[in-house]
Amino acid sequence: MVSNKSMVVEATKLTKKYGNFMAVDNINFDIRAGECFGFLGPNGAGKTTTVKMIQCFSPLTSGTLNVLGMNVQHEERKIKSRLGVVPQEDNLDPELTVMQNLIIYAAYFDFKGIKAQRKAKELLDFFELGEKRDALASNLSGGMKRRLTIARALINNPALLVLDEPTNGLDPRARHMVWQKLRELKNRNITLVLTTHYLEEAHRLCDRLLIMAGGKILDLGTPKEMVNKHIGDEVLELNIPPEQMSPLLEKVRKHIHGSLNLGTSLCLSPKDSKTLMTVLQETPFDLQYQLLRPANLEDVFFKLTGRGLEQ
Ligand SMILES: Nc1ncnc2c1ncn2[C@@H]1O[C@H](COP(=O)(O)OP(=O)(O)OP(=O)(O)O)[C@@H](O)[C@H]1O
Ligand SMILES: [Mg+2]
Q1: CATH number of the domain that 269 lies in?
Q2: Neighbours of 163 (CB within 10 A)
Q3: What is this structure's pTM?
Q4: Is the CB of 41 under 6 A from ligand 1?
Q5: How many distinct structural domains can be found in the chain?
Q6: Which of 108, 21, 13 is nearest to 53 (CA)?
Q7: 262-290 pLDDT, tens per residue?
Q8: Residues lying with their CB under 5 A of ligand 2, a single-atom ion
Q9: 152 C-alpha to ligand 1 centroid (Å)
């Protein structure tokens, strides 16, 4: 396969088996230079397995994978020198200080002495960890560990940063801070690849997304494209007694594109929201709660992963 320079990752028939178990099943995708690309999917979908192959941590079973124009099977070391890696589980050295964690990591890239010190300090400031530079990594809060792990991934000035659930466990403020930092990195032309379970995060950060389940791709596109294609503009959320759900659906069927029963609430995807609301007002159902809101990626996620807006 001829490598295309504007593509930072090119996966063709990418497959990973653990024994007989198919974790990633013959998938094709490209990631463009400078974009933020997100992997979404339920637990066990194959997201970590896929990003580990991109990070050259896990060999492919079959298919081809080029990263930064190089084949992962032949140029692992060269690729690794230009990658930043944030694993799903923090793997800092708990017995070293914050600063030492960065300095030791820098040494893997032959980055030593005053240059490493300067870079480490810059990164600690960037992630607002300067005050913790001499604290043991084991004494950091969960959110601080996550920020330090991301800081560490940047020590070698990577062209591509691959983050597996970067904001898992962060409080809302820390999450916004990481989003802001990731946007700044993107503005510096670093390509970002991330996995996340936070659909708001995916919507805010990612230029394009890949939704997968059972090792297969369910869809790939921009967040907006996916929402428009699978759900539409708006969703009406209702709370009604469970025994009234079916009769209500029967009544409104011709006014909706689809519906989703979330157990606690019923979501309707209206063809025209005003008409639907009028129809609902004229029905005898006991509507305890109604909210008309813009459709979002969570609706798409439920639809594609099987609990979905079914017609
Ligand atoms: N080392 C391994 N040996 C055997 N099976 C594995 C191994 N690693 C992952 N799997 C299996 O591969 C499948 C995909 O796992 P993976 O970690 O890629 O999922 P994920 O999408 O990252 O899920 P999560 O959202 O829970 O992090 C799962 O069924 C998992 O049990
Ligand atoms: Mg994972």
Answers
A1: 3.30.70.860
A2: 25
A3: 0.92
A4: yes
A5: 2
A6: 13
A7: 777 899 999 999 999 999 988 888 888 88
A8: 47-48, 88
A9: 24
